[in-house]
Amino acid sequence: xxxxxxxxxxxxxxxxxxxxxxxxxxxxxxxxxxxxxxxxxxxxxxxxxxxxxxxxxxxxxxxxxxxxxxxxxxxxxxxxxxxxxxxxxxxxxxxxxxxxxxxxxxxxxxxxxxxxxxxxxxxxxxxxxxxxxxxxxxxxxxxxxxxxxxxxxxxxxxxxxxxxxxxxxxxxxxxxxxxxxxxxxxxx
Length: 188
What we know:
There is one protein chain. The protein is of the alpha+beta class. It is 28% helix and 24% strand. It has helices at residues 47-64, 77-86, 88-91, 104-108, 146-161, and strands at 13-18, 21-26, 34-39, 67-73, 97-99, 112-113, 118-119, 121-126, 132-138. This is Alkyl hydroperoxide reductase C.
C-alpha cells in the first residue's frame, strides 16, 4: 500500500446529511480550509457512535481553528438521517455526514474493505490546498480519539505556518518545537 501523505485528494461527488438537510459535497468543498475526513464502517453499529459522538464533542473546537469535519461511510445519506433521528449520540453531530454507497470516496482514500463493502476507520487531515497531511487507519475494533486528532491538526497547522520547524512527540501549542539541523543530530 502506498502512502497518501502529501498527495492531493481525488475528485468526488456525494450527498451528505448536514443539519437536517441533504446537501451536495465535492472535493471542492474541502479546498480553502483545513478539513478532517473520518471514515467509519457503518451506521447503527457499536464503536462508530462512540467515535462520532466524541468528534461531535470537539466540533466547536475544530471550527474555531477553521477546520471542517466530515464523516464518511458506505451507507446512504438517507441512512445517516435515520441514524441521526434514532440515536441521541448521533443527534449531537453538527458536521456533514457523507454517504458513499458506491464506495468511490472510500476507495479514493484507500480504506475500502472490498469483501464487506465497508470502510476501515480512516482519518485524514487535509490542508487548504487539498493535500493530505495526516493519514491514520485503524482496524474495525480500535476506536479513535478526537482529542488526539485535535492535537494532530494543531501540529499540522503549526508546521504549515512555521517553515523550518517541526513538532516533537506529544507537542501541544505553546510548547517548544524543533528546527532540524546538523547541530541536533544525536543530541535529542
